[in-house]
Amino acid sequence: MSMTGSSAYCVAHAFPPFFRLSNKTMFLLSTPPTTFLPTPTTPRVPLLSSTASSSSTSSSSSSSISLRSSTAPSPSCSSVTPKDSSLVSAKHSHTNMSASVSSRTFLNARSEQDVFAGIKKEVEAGSLPANVAAGMQEVYNNYKNAVIQSGDPKANEIVLSNMIALLDRVFLDVTDPFVFQPHHKAKREPFDYYVFGQNYIRPLVDFKNSYVGNMPLFIEMEEKLKQGHNIILMSNHQTEADPAVIALLLEARLPYIAENLTYVAGDRVITDPLSKPFSIGRNLICVYSKKHMLDDPALVEMKRTANIRALKEMAMLLRNGSQIVWIAPSGGRDRPEAQTREWVPAPFDISSVDNMRRLVEHSGPPGHVYPLAILCHDIMPPPLKVEKEIGEKRIISFHGAGISVAPAISFSQATATCENPEKAKDVFTKALYDSVTEQYNVLKSAIHGKKGFEASTPVVSLSQPWK
């Protein structure tokens, strides 16, 4: 993803007549902004998936469920070699051919030496900024080391194939920038960015030491989606890879949810050159981060206007029903505590939780708010502190990961004894956060504590649905 960290944003206006927000509406987000310039004639590079995952191809019965939102067929996310995009007709192009055809610099690479020579060549030609080139080299080396850690006998082949695909997409975006709309739909053709993202992150996940908590509740969500209900996942947020990790752990049993999740995305994941290719493959509601709203005073009003538009897009989306939306109401990625160095879910922002709840309640279709916990910071940990500048150092490793969901929490039931409306908001937010923390601790015990399935509790039942 993914993908730089999630973020919060502040919107300063009213909403459409059917839904009113306060003058200081605050919203929190997590996953990837820019306008799409596709690649109509670029042959798709085969993307190799790691044998570390035993995930099987998605069943047709699961992926063909009838939902009110679009269910157009798409390639299996566990496909090893996606179809060659050169076979796609030029009619799929939405932009000038000369502006969108990718350079062959990286696609023609046959070795690691070719890749680095290509980076050097484009820098010398003035086609690639030096800072982006340095990031490319750093990511290549770190990704290589991480995949080799997996012990996969095809590690070197996987690294070369996946890195060629990534560097080609990064270079294409440098020369022909993609611009995200407030509501971005994953680009699946002529180049399948979703499959690309899945195959890139897959070799980094130690599936033997990864777990899903309460799989029956994820299945329950799919049933509610089929009935036209909306699902909101209030979640902690750890890494740029969060969207891919969620999808990878669910794709074998619930490919529809894996592919159709919409992520509320902060602006950094849609502006960082090394994040954008992953973000293009996800469904997003794009906003400007609250944490970076004031970085450039000249852009504050533009950002606020864009965020208002994004909120309207969210409202329109939910009015259609059958939507599943992931949001991190902490306003950013989790980070280790200063004293203990232990990772814990970052506190949820009350305003963000309440605004999302009201959006759901006023959307029309029934809506349900589920607390979701994610543990995957080892795979791609964020910087220890929030940074202003785009282009953070990418640390990458091979590690187990986990997600868990708890039963939906009803605002009216959770706050039945609260007479003060402000107190009710606090109680509801705390109930969601406490559930996320409880689930996170179970995942932590299973993965970091090496307890595996024995870490299960009466509240969180662990499984490995890809087996």
TrEMBL record:
Occurrences of domain Phospholipid/glycerol acyltransferase (ranges): 231-377
GO biological processes: CDP-diacylglycerol biosynthetic process; phosphatidylglycerol biosynthetic process
Keywords per UniProt: Acyltransferase, Chloroplast, Lipid biosynthesis, Lipid metabolism, Phospholipid biosynthesis, Phospholipid metabolism, Plastid, Transferase, Transit peptide
Motif HXXXXD motif per UniProt: ranges: 237-242
Coarse class of the protein's main subcellular location: plastid
Domain of life: Eukaryota
Keyword Lipid metabolism: yes
Region span, Disordered: 38-94
Chemical reaction(s) catalysed: sn-glycerol 3-phosphate + an acyl-CoA = a 1-acyl-sn-glycero-3-phosphate + CoA
EC number: 2.3.1.15
InterPro entries for this protein: G3P_O-acylTrfase_chlp (IPR016222), G3P_O-acylTrfase_N (IPR023083), GPAT_N_sf (IPR038114), Plipid/glycerol_acylTrfase (IPR002123)
Cellular component terms per the entry's GO annotation: chloroplast stroma
GO molecular function terms listed in the Swiss-Prot or TrEMBL record: glycerol-3-phosphate O-acyltransferase activity
Biased composition (Low complexity): 38-79
Metabolic or biological pathway: Lipid metabolism; Phospholipid metabolism; CDP-diacylglycerol biosynthesis; CDP-diacylglycerol from sn-glycerol 3-phosphate: step 1/3
Enzyme class: transferase
Entry annotated with the keyword Plastid: yes
Intracellular or extracellular location(s): Plastid, Chloroplast stroma
Stated role: Esterifies acyl-group from acyl-ACP to the sn-1 position of glycerol-3-phosphate. The enzyme from chilling-resistant plants discriminates against non-fluid palmitic acid and selects oleic acid whereas the enzyme from sensitive plants accepts both fatty acids.
Family note: Belongs to the GPAT/DAPAT family.
Name the UniProt record assigns to this protein: Glycerol-3-phosphate acyltransferase, chloroplastic
Organism: Vigna radiata var. radiata (Mung bean)
Gene, per the UniProt record: LOC106777818
